[in-house]
Design goal:
InterPro entries: CO_DH_gsu, START-like_dom_sf
CATH topology: Alpha-D-Glucose-1,6-Bisphosphate, Chain A, domain 4
Distance between the termini: 32 Å
CATH architecture: 2-Layer Sandwich
Strand order of the largest sheet: 1-7-6-5-4-3-2
Shape: globular
Structural class: alpha+beta
Helix content: 25-40%
Mean pLDDT: 88
CATH superfamily: START domain
Strand content: over 45%
Protein name: Carbon monoxide dehydrogenase subunit G
CATH class: Alpha Beta
Largest sheet: 7 strands, antiparallel
Organism: Phyllobacterium ifriqiyense
Pfam families: COXG
């Protein structure tokens, strides 16, 4: 599943970049995020619970930052394992473009699942992943614009 989009954020690029690297802001914006903390300069540990149809599997895993080009762009990749649900992998390429007093956050998100969770069907999984990504970028926009 691939999803592309753009958010116009009422803040300068440096402010948006700093927010993209702030685990407190990210935790507040990621739907279902229960824990998010740095373990190195380019890796975070995360735990989140995702509603998928009638179940709510919990995933724990790592988030990696790569292709770092501060304050212009980076790639964020994650891999999580759920106890009985299976695995979820995903990532996003994120670019920041200053546009006057605002910043355009341009993203391409991809997601994959395996194991028991994959039995729910690609339609439900794609829909859920799309909702999570859309909600994250909307909440992130609100949080950064409000600051």
């Amino acid at each position: 599943m691939d999803l592309t989009g753009e958010e116009r954020i009422a803040a300068n690029r440096a402010t948006v970049w700093n927010a993209l690297n702030n685990p407190d802001i990210l935790k507040a914006c990621i739907p279902g995020c229960e824990q998010l903390e740095w373990v190195s300069e380019t890796e975070l540990e995360a735990t989140l619970a995702v509603r998928l149809g009638v179940i709510k599997p919990r995933f724990s895993g790592a988030i990696y930052l790569s292709n770092l080009n501060p304050p212009f762009s980076y790639t964020i990749s994650c891999e999580g394992k759920g106890s009985i649900a299976g695995i979820a992998k995903g990532g996003a390429d994120v670019a920041l473009v200053e546009d006057g007093n605002e910043t355009r956050l341009i993203y391409t998100v991809n997601a994959q699942v395996g194991g028991k969770i994959a039995k729910f069907g690609s339609g439900l999984i794609a829909s859920t992943a799309s909702k999570i990504a859309t909600r994250f970028f909307e909440k992130f926009n609100e949080a950064v614009s409000a600051a």
